Amino acid sequence: MPIDSKKFRRKLLNISHTKLIALAFLTIILVGAILLTLPIASRSGVSCGFRPALFTATSATCVTGLVLYDTWVQWSGFGQVVILSLIELGGLGFMSAASLIIFLLRRKVGMRQRMVIAQAFSLTDLNGVVRLQRLVLVGSLTIEFLGAVILTLRFWPQYGLLRALHWGIFHSVSAFCNAGFDVLGSIRPGGSLAPFATDPVVCGTIMALIVVGGLGFFVWQEIWQKKSFRKLGVYSRLVLISTVVLIVGGAVGFCLLEWNNSETIGAMTTPQKLLVSTFQSVTTRTAGFASVDQAKLTEGGKGLTMFLMLIGGSSGSTAGGLKTVTFVVLLLFLWVKATGRQSVSIFHRTIPSNQVLDAMTLAGIMLVLAVFGGIFISATSPVSLTDGLYESISALATVGLTAGSTVKLSIPAQFLMIIYMYFGRVGILTLSLGFLTGNPANERFRYANTNLLIG
User: Fold this and answer.
1) How many domains, the chain?
2) What is the pLDDT of residue 271?
3) Which domain holds residue 46?
4) For the whole prediction, is pTM greater than 0.70?
5) What is the residue-wise DSSP string for 142-185?
């Protein structure tokens, strides 16, 4: 039966924006997987097969960083270009690439494109969305360029210009997009940033890129326009405050938990311990770079890492996770209930009860999926429950840190991680947009109330 092209085109045009975003990410993943399957993408010249390519393409597009093979060891220059392109598309969003083409061609951005851009950035208002998109493109490329320059200058004297340039560009893009992919396998395969764990220039630059990328594009716009903390909106102030508190609190926590652990930071000097602990605190916010072996963390260190991974970065950014402000709303709700009050408020503003319920729903979904994933991994792979949870949360929050379990995953567990990485990048965004823009369903009837014993 022939396909009616007009009918198909009409259905495509009428597809919802959230579904369009989900389908676009899926298409990018599949195209990336096909390209990585090509023999030219592998350093050995032999195809890696579709499943490993799909896992890698999903991890790159969903800016996660979990890998079955070391990126430098497995992938050729062509393969690394494909991975870096997927990271950029996944981190900044496919609409950023589309908008760049529109801007270069000097075409006008239509209403449908504006709506998709707004939803991709978790915005409900179309006002200034094109201006925000321009800021995202110019700002992102500028920040990535500056990061690449600093890293290149640092690597150049020791490793030569070409390798320094390669490393500088790759790691700047990967860090800004919170992807966690690295190409340092020529020094230590699978070691991530461990060879530069105590290097303040490398770690400082990577941390700065991670934090800026994880703040969120809307916060960028407000900072650019207002140029004063007091003039910022409630959301932007919450993002900045929670980001600082989580980084400092995480760094202090890692210092306390790992200070005497000779397998991680125990043998380092005090300044080095502070640097590595701060880096660990920052990278857990969905970046995925590792300056110490995650498998050798204490149980407390792993627990703190999983907690920070679940929180993640901020909405409308390159980061994943539950999101900082969502976590703050949950804390405020718990405080309100503990003190016997009814309304949740911050900075002399009341947070609507439906947004509080939305935050609780997202948190509940994340926790249930994380626990299920941990149990599934430990049941199907030679991995402990703690490391299974670590892997599950890392995929779901699109972090990319691993306690050495990724290479041990069974085939069913690998497919679960693929689903989790996709859901962590696209599903959480879709749910959040549904909460922001969805209309509550009309209830045709309501049952009588009943009282239950709670607590």
Assistant:
1) 1
2) 95
3) 15-435
4) yes
5) HHHHHHHHHHHHHHHHHH-HHHHHHHHHHHHHHHHTT------T
